[in-house]
Amino acid sequence: MGAIYALVALGFVTISRASQIINFAQGEFVMLGGVATFFLLNGVRLPYPLAALIAVMIVVLVGFAMYLSVLYPLRKASILILIMATLGISIFLSSTSGLIFGTLPKALPPFTDEQPLMFWGISMLPQSVWVLVSTLVLLTFLYLLSHRTLLGKAMEASSTDPLGADLLGISRSLMVFLAFGVSAGVGAFAGILITPIFFTSYNSGTLLGLKGFIAAVLGGWGKNSGAILGGFVLGIVESLSLAFIPSGYKDAVAFVILLLILYFRPKGILGSPFIDSRRW
Amino acid sequence: MTLSDYKPMLKIKKLTVQYGPLPALNEVSLEVKQGEIVSLLGPNGAGKTTLLLTLSGILKTTEGRIIFKDEDITNLSPPKIVFKGIGHVPQGRHIFPTLSVIDNLLMGAYLHRNEKKEIKKDLERVDQFLPVLKERAHQRAGTLSGGEQQMLSIGRAMMGRPKLLLLDEPSLGLAPRLMDEVFATFREMNKGGLTLFIVEQEIQLTLAISNRGYLLRNGRVIKEASASALTESREVKALYLGEDAERGLK
User: Fold this and answer.
1) Are residues B77 and B168 in the same domain?
2) Are residues B170 and B50 in the same domain?
3) Are B109 and B119 in contact (CB under 8 A)?
4) How far is A163 from chain B (nearest CA, A)?
5) Does B67 lie in the same domain as B77?
6) At B167, is the secondary structure helix, strand, or coil?
7) B106 chain-A contacts, CB cut-off 8 A
8) Residue B1 above 50 pLDDT?
9) Chain A residues touching B110 at Cβ < 8 A
10) Cross-chain CB nearest to A167 (options B90, B97, B104)
11) B154 with B172, same domain?
């Protein structure tokens, strides 16, 4: 679960670094990834890997479309308006998905058989191993993309110093556009990984999105490393809390963590470049 | 060759820029000829930075025209303006602290990113002008000293192959010895064929390397003269000594 939060948090951070927008539709990308794969698998009857790949591509296109249709025309508006717009898009996406694909929860089959694996006396579902391994592979891939390619470096440049990048002819709109694509792709990927473990329904994106947001704040808003760390910490704390409090309260744990972190360490575990530490 | 023999490169005609209800620039007209070093002087808040940001397309103008090499570039997008050959070294350097020095330079060549061979040549040329950048090529730019960051910001703008380089307060925050070094570099760059338009508060050093200069105040050009005439002028002396002295001179 921590891996999923980490991916969602990474999606938040990618967009916020490029544009300062907090994209509250991030959770919908996750939901769409799961639901679209379900549809392609059971409706169109594509083989599993192909369905997953196409689903990721569809969600990336949704991310691009979301930027072009709503956020690009609003680019001169204040950040608050843009954030409200993402909230609107989030509601739009989940309702539309409910109308098209139905409101029943959907489950995907696990990638491989369901026999639990034993590691040094710890039993794990194969799907959990899949989630962990794929997340690590994806993170490595994203790291290489942003640190080894010119375009990745341009995105980094544009997010650390927008004016400096503008003056070199690096188009900020293009960078934000790409950030939306990457975030949508990462979100969809997370959705596909998680749907075999938990059910995905048209409205499950909101909670996932909020928890990913909490993970990003917990780790240190605006930092990729913070998002990943925050995701795993949140996942682990949530699971451990089951030993002490009824499982019905599991979702509340994340929000209690959010409150605590905002009270006592708003810049998160690793610190945040956006929050001035001197104020706290 | 006298000044009038130079070909005009940049012509600004009656440029007006609004910041909210007040005009930051009010019908500013000036020109920069090919091969010149032109300085723009003036007190804080005169609109110098606003003028440069408008030239680069970051700020939009409400009235007036900007002509660069016989082409109207008024309100074009920043990438288009960079591509046409106007480089900009912004005030406060604006380097990318998390990228290495060499990556910063490569970002400067972003618009020419597919011309690998030329970029390599450009890199060598920049290293020649600014040798310190070569020594630190793989260091993170954020770890450079202020002077080195300034050099990096200049080198980065040169990677875009500008014909005209806009320099916004390049001496800001530099130790005096470094300032001399930076201005010597400007002179070298100018000899290499680059036209320079410098905004500065460091009046003496700037006028020493300039051909001509303009004086800007409250968003208006109040004086235009050759560098030597400006050095002697009452207005520039007043600028040194502050407003009170100016009143005294009157």
Assistant:
1) yes
2) yes
3) yes
4) 7
5) yes
6) strand
7) 150, 153
8) no
9) 150, 154, 168-170
10) B90
11) no
